[in-house]
Amino acid sequence: MTQSAQRPTVDVVMCTYNGAKFLRPQLDSxxxxxxxxxxxxxxxxxxxxxxxxxxxxxxxxxxxxRFYPNSHNLGFNRNFREAAMRSTADFVAFxxxxxxxxxxxxxxxxxxxxxxxxxxxxHTRGSDPARTHIVKPQSSPExxxxxxxxxxxxxLRGDFVRRPESWIDNIYYDWSLGVNAWFYQQRGIVLVxxxxxxxxxxxxxxxxLQNRRLxxxxxxxxxxxxxxxxxxxxxxxxxxxxxxxxxGIIAERSAGVPACRKQHRMAxxxxxxxxxxxxxxxxxxxxxxxxxYPDPDKVHGMMGTVRSFCYPLIFAYRNSLFDF
Length: 324
Prior knowledge:
Layout: E1 10-16, H1 23-31, E2 39-44, H2 51-61, E3 65-69, H3 76-84, E4 91-95, E5 100-101, H4 105-113, E6 118-128, E7 131-135, E8 154-157, H5 158-161, H6 173-180, E9 189-200, H7 206-214, H8 225-238, H9 241-254, H10 261-271, H11 275-288, H12 301-309, H13 311-316
């Protein structure tokens, strides 16, 4: 530990942009954690509402709040990266501006993280605390080929998060960190299997706005559509430089890592544009089943086998992860 083996320090990194409507409850939940927070590092990305005023009000009351307003807009991905590099604590937790943490979030994650690079937890999601569902993301090396888990559920080792190599340009920051957690000193990831924060659903969510920008038609879609249109979008995504860069890094860094043998083979298949490579990838996801599919309850029986086999196409359908 950098300061004390008895009492590891924790910094919280929050990035804000026009978050005045929801910011106060989130700050209150961070400042009332049962484990003390060394610094709350808040980096604002040129908000035009009262976000900065609210932060300065809290800063006048709490000496551990450090506020950094950007001179120009960075976008949330780069903003989180630059803000994380300001941290100095043993551990770092990321915070969105519109969630609410449960009081023991940091305490429970510190108890669980051990020598792992990342500890994450389940979380609740919904527009109202009384009407939420529990989100239980996957974190196996193979599952992380198809998406990450939310940054707001993460507690990370400081030496890991401050490594430039832990961040991949033009990839969502939390996905990049999740993937690289398996490679840096092979420490990997550990889960706290309980919800430790409420992820608030609302119309201004960054991910929701990004998806609507790329797929403006919205509405419900036929059940067959992901299978029929997923193939075309899979091929479209394969042609993107971000795709080739991302899976190229995974293929390179996973080589020779015992826990990542299957991930390495699958990444190589995702870089290969041949029909045989896609068939082999589908066979691999079918065999892995609940280890990679987002909802393990949906991979049982005949239809579950179909879903597992077609998961690369389902993943590609309406995918905006490579459209920065």
